[in-house]
């Protein structure tokens, strides 16, 4: 049986049964999409390679520990892991970038992101970003993926269509429905996503 013809689910099953080739084929099958996704966000080849490796290390650990529940969405799941690792990287970088203070370098308000502007505005903007991200997480998988690729990764709809193996019209349609669903969620939860 030729491994390249097997579905992702079958390759995962083979890997879990002890056949290392299963994970090798999975990585080979999805490496370009995952790496490109990471590179488009971090814009640094060496960093993208590190996060790519960390992504598949985490994928393998998650598979081995039984934390992956097969829903036929292996690539989306892997991209979500990559996305979370990218976010973790940027959070760590932001924590490193502190401005000098009057001997209180470790004080939370000495962070660069709090150094300019009003702390209240910073906190409100952070809360809005968190609420929007929570709303995005509640969307169906296909809609969530388009939002993440478009607004968090900055991909064009042509690139999104290629990366998700759909037509541009389908990608645009998913974005439209995602925005409609986010508006509904905002109304249902009576949220105000403005700084004023």
What does the model show?
71% of the residues lie in helices and 0% in strands. With 196 residues, the protein is mainly α. The protein folds into two domains: 1-96, RNA polymerase sigma factor, region 2, helix turn helix motif (Rna Polymerase Sigma Factor, Chain: A), CATH 1.10.1740.10; 138-191, Arc Repressor Mutant, subunit A (Orthogonal Bundle). α1 crosses α2, α3 packs across α4 and α8 (157-164) packs across α9 (168-189).
Key features?
Rna Polymerase Sigma Factor, Chain: A, 196 residues, mainly alpha, Arc Repressor Mutant, subunit A
Task: Quickly describe the structure.
Helix content is 71%, strand content 0%.
Layout: helices, strands, pairs:
Layout: H1 8-16, H2 21-42, H3 45-64, H4 74-96, H5 112-115, H6 119-137, H7 141-152, H8 157-164, H9 168-189
Helix pairs in contact: 1-2, 2-3, 2-4, 3-4, 7-9, 8-9
Q: Helical segment tally?
A: 9
How many domains is the backbone divided into? 2
| Helical content band | over 70%
Task: Give the overall shape, derived from the CA principal axes.
Answer: globular
- Look at the structure and give the mean pLDDT: 80
Rg over CA atoms: 20 Å
Indicate the proportion of strand residues. Answer: under 5%
Beginning-to-end CA distance, first to last residue: 62 Å
CATH topology type of the largest domain: Rna Polymerase Sigma Factor, Chain: A
What's the CATH architecture name of the largest domain?
Answer: Orthogonal Bundle
Q: Unreliable runs, pLDDT <50, ≥5 residues?
A: 98-117
**Helix and strand composition category:** mainly alpha
Look at the structure and give the CATH class of the largest domain. Answer: Mainly Alpha
CATH H level, superfamily name of the largest domain: RNA polymerase sigma factor, region 2, helix turn helix motif
Largest sheet: none
Written as H for each helix and E for each strand, in order along the chain, the element string is HHHHHHHHH
Q: How many E strands? A: 0
């Amino acid at each position: 049986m030729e491994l390249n013809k097997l579905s992702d689910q079958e390759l995962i099953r083979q890997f879990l049964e002890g056949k290392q080739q299963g994970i090798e084929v999975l990585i080979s099958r999805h490496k370009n999409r995952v790496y490109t996704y990471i590179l488009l966000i971090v814009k640094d080849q060496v960093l993208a390679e590190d996060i790519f490796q960390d992504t598949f290390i985490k994928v393998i650990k998650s598979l081995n520990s039984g934390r992956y529940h097969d829903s036929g969405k292996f690539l989306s799941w892997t991209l979500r892991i990559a996305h979370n690792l990218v976010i973790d990287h940027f959070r760590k970088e932001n924590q490193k970038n502190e401005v000098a203070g009057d001997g209180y370098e470790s004080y939370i308000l000495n962070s660069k992101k709090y150094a300019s502007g009003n702390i209240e505005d910073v906190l409100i903007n952070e809360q809005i970003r968190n609420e929007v991200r929570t709303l995005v997480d509640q969307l169906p998988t296909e809609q969530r993926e388009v939002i993440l690729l478009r607004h968090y990764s900055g991909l064009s709809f042509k690139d999104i269509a290629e990366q998700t193996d759909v037509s541009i019209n389908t990608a645009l349609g998913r974005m439209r429905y995602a925005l409609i669903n986010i508006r509904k969620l905002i109304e249902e939860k009576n949220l105000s996503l403005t700084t004023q």
